[in-house]
Amino acid sequence: MLEGRDYPPQVQRWYDRLAPVIERARDALHAADPGDVARRAGCLYETDGTLRLTLLREGYAIRPADWTIYRRDTEEKPTEFTQALILTYLISADGTPPSGRWIGYRDLPDGMFYAQAFRGYAELRLERELGEGSLARFRAAAAALGGTEIEIGDAGYAFPVLPRVHLGAVYWMGDEDLPSRTSILFEDTAPHYMSTDGLAVLGSHLVNALLDAAP
């Protein structure tokens, strides 16, 4: 089960399917060379063998002796949610450089099957909960998360959610005929690092972070 926030049922189900993968990922990583894993995943590889990465600006250390994950410079383990995302990322990473080419969720492998659900619990929720003054709140939240502007929509930002997985968040202003709209975008290289289910979870994670950061 996911810990902390109340996640939408679709994300909860997808996470529950990912949860058993954690131990299998650790088993597979035990047979891998930590330096090669670090190179493919874009992690910092320290002289003591520790791998370091960030997940939406939160730092984590991974110790290859047992592939245990800790919060930055502490002995505190993150939630199972975070461990699942990081371990899945490490075992899936193949070293493909980020492309800077943006696609929607429906354009991911098999994404069309889940696009409507993703639209509902991620993008529509972002629009709904931003509420009045949405564009200003969106920009402030993106700036607080360290987003880099991209030239899409009336306001667009890219976020390095993981070292080689960048997500975009875009806002289009509405008018008298059409309401304002938001989109969560993915680089077309993202499937080299995470399954489509896992990318949906990352997209929801980004929406949560934007809403938490919105003034």
What does this structure look like?
With 215 residues, the protein is α+β, with helices and mostly antiparallel strands. The protein has 2 domains: 9-92, no CATH class; 102-213, TATA-Binding Protein. Helices cover 40% and strands 20% of the residues. The chain is built from 7 helices and 9 strands, in the order αααββββαβααββββα. The protein has a 5-stranded antiparallel β-sheet with strand order 5-9-8-7-6, with helices on one face. β7 and β8 form a beta hairpin. The longest helix is centred in the C-terminal third of the chain and has 18 residues, at 196-213. The radius of gyration is 17 Å and the shape is elongated.
CATH topology of the largest domain: TATA-Binding Protein
**Shape descriptor:** elongated
Q: Which percent band covers the strand fraction?
A: 15-25%
Sheet with most strands: strand arrangement: 5-9-8-7-6
The number of helical runs is 7
CATH class of the largest domain: Alpha Beta
Q: What are the segments in which pLDDT stays under 50 over at least 5 consecutive residues? A: none
Number of strands: 9
Question: Which properties best describe this structure?
Answer:
215 residues; alpha+beta; TATA-Binding Protein; 2 domains; 5-stranded antiparallel β-sheet; 4-stranded antiparallel β-sheet; 7 helices; 9 strands; 40% helix; 20% strand; elongated
Ordered list of secondary-structure elements with their pairings:
Layout: H1 9-18, H2 21-30, H3 34-41, E1 44-45, E2 51-55, E3 58-63, E4 68-71, H4 80-92, E5 102-103, H5 115-130, H6 134-144, E6 148-149, E7 155-162, E8 165-172, E9 181-187, H7 196-213
Antiparallel strand pairs: 1-2, 2-3, 3-4, 5-9, 6-7, 7-8, 8-9
